[in-house]
């Protein structure tokens, strides 16, 4: 179903791997998700078991003031998943808030790591700096431990992430080692990075991280008019004053989108070479980017409409996937409780 019209880099998964990925339901998924993880999930879903976590509890760490947004975004994410080709029969869809074992695991893991180590996490530091006072709550600050609980609860061995997220997986591996010292048998997860030459993290139209919250991303269901507006806002090379000026293709955001999604690789290479020499305008680059994105998003948008008609079926898949995953999480929690000397007593 899903086709970028160009090879999708399959992540370095091993036989027997159990994969965990997921998204926070704070709004529609966008092209940054597609370039960063969705395409790889679609390509890898037949290779080994995938658990895809709809992380609504984590979304509340910076959206507790807008719980309706988080609640309503869950259906949209299910529709987006189906539209890009994720098959609920092949992957386990799990709603985080319906697996209470994760929260108890997170509470226990917090006893094995210092607050200083969590706050030194570069992702946390960057997010806190970006969000400022809106994110200065304890739930947000300690979410690396919560993310580690997600990974360990479902006994994941492989976690596909961008390289900037490596410290998160390193923390989860450290906590798995700490549990092993106490007698708990939990697989040590590893980060799995995009293949060389993959698009990686796609910037937003303004050059910052593509974000639903920042409003600088192109949604998977964007209309042609919304795509055109977003491309017009894409930052260009500020050093250029005319089309005759030599330019740096690494500066315009439009080139980042072309590198991620343009199926005509030779044509793109020729355009970049001409841009370096001078002789092509930023408007020309944006026109090509608009066409490429429109051709990519159009079919996905149509499939979103069809997936919306199947929403009850997708909700059932989420419910069933969550129930199945809870069994795994319960077994993991029992093992972790034991290493802390906790047993289940009748209340």
What does this structure look like?
- The longest helix has 29 residues, at 311-339.
- By secondary structure, the protein is mainly alpha-helical.
- β4, α9 (166-181) and β5 form a beta-alpha-beta unit.
- The protein has two domains: 19-201 and 311-339, Rossmann fold; 224-307, Tyrosyl-Transfer RNA Synthetase, CATH 1.10.240.10.
- It contains 14 helices and five strands.
- Residues 1-10 have low confidence and may be disordered.
List keywords for this structure.
Tyrosyl-Transfer RNA Synthetase, 5 strands, 14 helices, 347 residues, Rossmann fold, disordered N terminus, single chain, mainly alpha, 2 domains
Topology overview:
Layout lengths: L18 E5 L7 H14 L5 E5 L1 H4 L7 H18 L6 E5 L4 H10 L5 H5 L2 H10 L6 H4 L1 H11 L4 E3 L5 H16 L8 E3 L31 H9 L20 H9 L3 H13 L4 H28 L1 H29 L8
Parallel strand pairs: 1-2, 2-3, 4-5
Helix pairs in contact: 3-13, 3-14, 4-8, 4-14, 8-9, 10-13, 11-13
CATH class category label of the largest domain = Alpha Beta
Mean pLDDT: 89
Query: Which structural class do you get from the secondary structure elements?
Result: mainly alpha
Main β-sheet description: 3 strands, parallel
Helix content: 40-55%
* Strand line-up in the sheet with most strands: 1-2-3
Number of helices: 14
Work out the radius of gyration.
21 Å
The number of distinct β-strands equals: 5
> How would you sum up the global shape?
globular
CATH superfamily of the largest domain: HUPs
β-strand percent reads: 5-15%
At CATH level 3, the topology of the largest domain is Rossmann fold
Query: Helix and strand succession?
Result: EHEHHEHHHHHEHEHHHHH
What number of domains?
2
> Kindly, what is the distance between the CA atoms of the first and last residues, rounded to a whole number of angstroms?
50 Å
CATH architecture of the largest domain: 3-Layer(aba) Sandwich
Uncertain runs with pLDDT below 50, 5 residues or more? 1-10
């Amino acid at each position: 179903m899903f086709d970028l019209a160009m090879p999708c880099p399959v992540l370095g998964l091993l036989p027997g791997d159990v994969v965990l990925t997921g998204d926070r339901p704070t709004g529609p998924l966008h092209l940054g998700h597609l370039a960063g993880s969705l395409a790889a999930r679609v390509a890898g879903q037949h290779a080994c078991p995938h658990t895809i976590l709809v992380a609504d509890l984590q979304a509340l760490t910076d959206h507790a003031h807008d719980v309706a947004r988080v609640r309503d975004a869950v259906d949209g994410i299910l529709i987006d998943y189906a539209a890009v080709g994720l098959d609920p029969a092949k992957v386990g869809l799990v709603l985080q808030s319906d697996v209470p074992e994760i929260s108890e695991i997170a509470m226990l893991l917090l006893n094995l790591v210092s607050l200083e180590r969590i706050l030194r996490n570069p992702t946390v530091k960057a997010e806190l700096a970006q969000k400022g006072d809106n994110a200065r709550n304890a739930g947000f600050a300690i979410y690396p431990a919560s993310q580690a609980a997600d990974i360990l609860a479902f006994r994941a061995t492989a976690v596909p992430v961008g390289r900037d997220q490596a410290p998160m997986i390193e923390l989860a591996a450290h906590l798995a080692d700490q549990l092993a010292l106490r007698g708990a048998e939990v697989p040590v997860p590893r980060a799995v990075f995009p293949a060389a030459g993959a698009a990686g993290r796609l910037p937003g139209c303004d050059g910052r991280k593509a974000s639903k919250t920042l409003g600088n991303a192109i949604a998977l269901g964007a209309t042609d008019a919304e795509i055109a507006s977003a491309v017009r806002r894409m930052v260009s090379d500020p050093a250029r004053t005319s089309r005759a000026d030599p330019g740096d293709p690494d500066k315009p955001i439009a080139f980042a989108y072309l590198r991620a999604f343009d199926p005509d690789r030779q044509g793109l290479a020729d355009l970049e070479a001409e841009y370096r020499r001078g002789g092509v305008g930023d408007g020309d680059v944006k026109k090509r980017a608009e066409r490429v994105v429109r051709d990519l998003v159009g079919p996905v948008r149509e499939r979103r409409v069809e997936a919306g008609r199947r929403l009850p079926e997708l909700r059932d898949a989420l419910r069933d996937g969550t129930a199945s995953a809870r069994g795994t999480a319960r077994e993991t929690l029992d093992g972790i409780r034991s290493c802390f000397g906790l047993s289940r007593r009748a209340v």
